[in-house]
Amino acid sequence: MSLSIKDHEIDIVIGALRSDLTSFMSEWRPIFSRFHLIIVKDPDLKEELKIPEGFNLDVYKKPDIDCVVGTSTSTIFSGYSCRYFGYLVSRKKYIISVDDDCYPAKDNKGILVDAVAQHITNLTTPATPFFFNTLYDPFTEGADFVRGYPFSLRSGVQCALSCGLWLNLAHYDAPTQALKPEERNSRYVDAVLTVPARSLMPISGINIAFNQEVIGPALLPSLRLGGEGKFRWETMEDIWSGMCVKVACDHLGLGVKTGMPYVWRNDRGDAIASLRKEWEGVKLMEEVVPFFQSVRLPREATTTEDCVAEVANVVKEQLGSKDPIFARAAKAMVDWVMLWKSVGSSTSSPGA
Question: What is the pTM of this model?
């Protein structure tokens, strides 16, 4: 981990969709025990959480969420969206988010991967979104800029978002996973790269880290599919959020990295059972991607909050009449910016 980053500058956010976190926490203990953890219990989860001792953590349950944002607003944090509440209440510079069905991975040499250290390395070294380096991240040990790379661009830009990957269960949609039920990802690729400017990607909240002070408000819950369930295949919210944050990063001249660190992700859910629910999202992507590719924000948008508000306006104008889901997403984005500003530094620990 970068020597300039202190442990107290980092929050690890865990959205708890299952009650027994014993094995999850135990596996992560060698890495997580150094940091403050924010565990947000899915408001729809009825069972009490089982969390082993020995961690510095705050646990937020439905009454805590209601207290911070009000009962009328707390419904947006159900299911996987509970992680966004952790983003909202954290006051740390860096947030690392890992799903509760993920465990530490091992690299090609069998060494345990310190996902936190790698995420922080990604965030604290420059990104290079304006000219692609064919040796991947030139700021990685043992790498550099390739011949022909403009010297005027070699200083790079600030990296705001680090998107980690995972082994075992591949990041497929329900139709693909249903066709390849036995396929697993076993390839550990020792590489990090910057996503080029104006290129979109399906960001997932399974294993990410970001600089909250720079881009925090753009990681937001807004677009929810009808009848959305509790399994990854049935959610599209983080993909929409990822498009928003990438547009904001491009506009503000910030970078996004993808690749290491890896985690090991266990199977969860039934792809075939989820197929009907996700099909709505598969169809929506054919409109969503061209829309985000065409979005250009005004020069007056100088903050992340400005960017989110501007994207929301364009969503309402260009997509709102095509499907009610887009009009609801636009309103949710505006509401989120207001909530982000209102919660701010007034947030206290649960039970305080």
Answer: 0.93
